[in-house]
Write a structure and sequence with these properties.
single chain; about 80 residues; alpha+beta; four-stranded antiparallel beta sheet; 2 helices; 4 strands; about 30% helix
Length: about 80
């Protein structure tokens, strides 16, 4: 398993997202990803393009891609 765990039963994954440039961008991406089932926290950082997601179980990358796309950005992949 390559994902790191924060608390028992949670999985942390870091994704690379292109196109974020400001706090509004971070909020849009965080808002969409946080609606995915099992997600407990999302932290997007525009300056690095990284989005850290903590969830109850590993997320389907296509579901994350769809959420990022809905926010108007592009998921590059896992960081």
């Amino acid at each position: 398993m390559t994902a790191q765990t924060d608390t028992p039963g949670s999985v942390t994954a870091v994704y690379k997202v292109s196109g974020m440039s400001c706090g509004h961008c971070e909020g849009a991406v965080s808002g969409e990803i946080s609606e995915l089932p099992g997600v407990s926290s999302v932290k997007a950082v525009a300056s690095t393009g990284e989005v850290t997601v903590v969830s109850a179980a590993p997320l389907d990358e296509e579901a994350v891609r769809a959420a990022v796309d809905e926010a108007g950005f592009e998921l590059v992949g896992k960081a």
